[in-house]
Amino acid sequence: MASRKPLVMGNWKLNGSKAFTKELIEGLKTELAGVEGCDVAIAPPVMYLAEAEAALVGSKIALGSQNVDVNVKGAFTGDISTEMLKDFGAKYIIIGHSERRTYHKESDEFIAKKFGALKEAGLVPVLCIGETEAENEAGKTEEVVSRQIDAVINALGVEAFNGAVIAYEPIWAIGTGKSATPAQAQAVHAFIRAHIAAKSQAVADQVIIQYGGSVNDSNAAELFTQPDIDGALVGGASLKAPAFAVIVKAAAAAKA
Ligand SMILES: O=C[C@H](O)COP(=O)(O)O
């Protein structure tokens, strides 16, 4: 089995300001100095990519974004392109977050198009998938995550997951303080990897599968003991440098 370097990514969502961006990144640079063994990325609001790019100079923390649109240029009011993200040095791009699926009615097929646009541009898709509480209680978790993954496989082929990231985020765990247990998350992560392995073992072995949903400085270490949890996509706890650093260090230690 290929060894996978964990990735911990902060999704700042709709939070921050120019000053906050600078301050948080300075804090992260201090807290994470000398930490090896875990890739780290942050996704501030796109409004603050310029401040973030400048503040990250000299740091190994990668820049990301919380969304992208499918068109590269032209009359698409309000859209943001892959090329614009590249212009700011962004690398890891979150797509299909449940908040976009819910509030902006993004479909599996539309998200697969975004995945393709990112691959074409040489950017790393961070594909969010996960079930609602009702789907979970109805025993539909595997059906839902399969459908969300298959939309990409059907459009682009399983090889599209080479070098890509999947973030399994059960919707009932997002921002609720009610994280999935390590065993619950591991079971779904193993299912996702096996689902991809049915098409290509090699692709499944290398794909990073992050867990997301109320990850914090107290529960991260135990989540990372699970073999198929390759890091985390962190919301609330990514807004404080010390808490986020604890999560990064826990991933580095667990996967060393
Ligand atoms: O993208 C991050 C997730 O939605 C998790 O957010 P949270 O850590 O605030 O629960």
Automatic annotation (TrEMBL):
It is found in: Cytoplasm. InterPro entries: Aldolase_TIM (IPR013785), TIM_sf (IPR035990), TrioseP_Isoase_bac/euk (IPR022896), Triosephosphate_isomerase (IPR000652), Triosephosphate_isomerase_AS (IPR020861). GO terms for biological process: gluconeogenesis; glyceraldehyde-3-phosphate biosynthetic process; glycerol catabolic process; glycolytic process. PROSITE patterns: TIM_1, TIM_2. The active site is at residues 97, 169. Pfam families: TIM. Pathway: Carbohydrate metabolism; erythritol degradation; Carbohydrate biosynthesis; gluconeogenesis; Carbohydrate degradation; glycolysis; D-glyceraldehyde 3-phosphate from glycerone phosphate: step 1/1. It catalyses: D-glyceraldehyde 3-phosphate = dihydroxyacetone phosphate. Keywords: Cytoplasm, Gluconeogenesis, Glycolysis, Isomerase. The keyword DNA damage does not apply. GO terms for molecular function: triose-phosphate isomerase activity. Substrate binds at residues 11-13, 175, 214, 235-236. Its EC number is 5.3.1.1. One of its GO terms (cellular component) is cytosol. Transmembrane segments: none annotated. Homodimer. Involved in the gluconeogenesis. Catalyzes stereospecifically the conversion of dihydroxyacetone phosphate (DHAP) to D-glyceraldehyde-3-phosphate (G3P). Belongs to the triosephosphate isomerase family. This is Triosephosphate isomerase.
